Amino acid sequence: MKYLHTMVRVTDLEASLDFYCNNLGLVEVRRKEVPAGRFTLVFLAAPGDKAGELELTWNWDPEEYTGGRNFGHLAYAVDDIYGLCQKLMDAGVTINRPPRDGHMAFVRSPDGISIELIQKGDDLPATEPWLSMPNEGSW
Amino acid sequence: MKYLHTMVRVTDLEASLDFYCNNLGLVEVRRKEVPAGRFTLVFLAAPGDKAGELELTWNWDPEEYTGGRNFGHLAYAVDDIYGLCQKLMDAGVTINRPPRDGHMAFVRSPDGISIELIQKGDDLPATEPWLSMPNEGSW
Fold it and tell me: pTM above the 0.90 mark?
């Protein structure tokens, strides 16, 4: 038995690829367009470790997606949590739970999927501006 | 960067462990009880391939969880999709999308998390009772 992927639905494929790839740093592994069903599947993965994929389902006919409490979040280990959070902030992404401890942060995708970022290896030294940055919203 | 886990919240830890471990076949990798926060985290993984974990969060104070459309499902490759679906049915689990094609099935966790099961390698030959088994509910 083997874990393959987590699937999330996206309302705007371009906005989601911008978030997951350009900002977060995942890479597109493959894509399947299904005109008969009017949907596109895009499989993403962390660069250098493609074992666990994220499947984006984009239905061509507009839908709006909301979240539920039974799903919590997706978690990724990252090389430099401060650098990544800065890059996300610069791109206009809200850091809902800043990495005050040099260890953990939470952000949300354009469709409200909560993403946990965890520093690989030892925590980074606590430092500003992260140390005194308040939480914003929920995650 | 590396995918670590998907977290889901569970209302009843024992019922969830029965579903995910006894029925589905995942194994418990580690557990963390946090009395100060009144919650328990249990990390599960597919036996033999523990790269992508499933984190169950059980809050000790009762909550009821519902789903949202932004999250789709978790997917696992399985060795024998017919054998596993029979085991799940025998345990009282509804097969929402039976493996009519010997390739794919969907079930739901006690908290409504949709789980996709995909036959490893070649599809199994189409056979009864699966071939004529109707869908039940949504997934």
Answer: yes
Chain A partners of B67 at a C-beta cutoff of 8 Å?
A: 68, 70-71
Identify which of A50, A49, A23 has the alpha carbon closest to the alpha carbon of residue A107: A23
* Second-level CATH architecture of B1-60: Roll (3.10)
Mean pLDDT, chain B, integer: 97
- Is the separation of the CB atoms in B28 and B42 below 8 Å? yes
Partners of B56 in the beta sheet?
B8, B42
pLDDT value, residue A48: 82
Length in residues, chain A: 139
How high is the pLDDT of residue A76? Answer: 98
What chain A residue is nearest to B108 in terms of C-alpha separation?
A70
Q: With an 8 Å Cβ cutoff, is A136 touching chain B?
A: no
pLDDT at B48: 82
Task: Note whether B15 contacts A: Cβ–Cβ < 8 A.
Answer: no
Closest by Cβ to B8, choosing from A49, A70, A79: A70
Please list the residue range(s) of chain A that carry CATH number 3.10.180.10: 1-60, 72-134
| pLDDT per residue as tens digits for the range B107-124 | 999 999 999 999 999 999
Cα(A58)–Cα(A11) distance, integer angstroms: 6
Q: Which A residues, 50 through 109, put their C-beta within 8 Å of a C-beta on chain B?
A: 51-55, 57, 63, 65-79, 109
A72/B56 Cα distance (integer angstroms): 9
| Percent of chain A residues topping a pLDDT of 70 | 100
Confidence bin at A41 (pLDDT 50/70/90): very high
Which CATH architecture is the domain B72-139 placed in? Roll (3.10)
CATH 3.10.180.10 segments of chain B: 1-60, 72-139
Q: Which among A1, A46, A65 has the least Cβ separation from residue B78?
A: A1
Handedness of CA A38, B133, A7, A108 (dihedral sign): positive
Active site residue B116: yes
Q: Does B27 reach chain A within 8 Å, measured CB to CB?
A: no
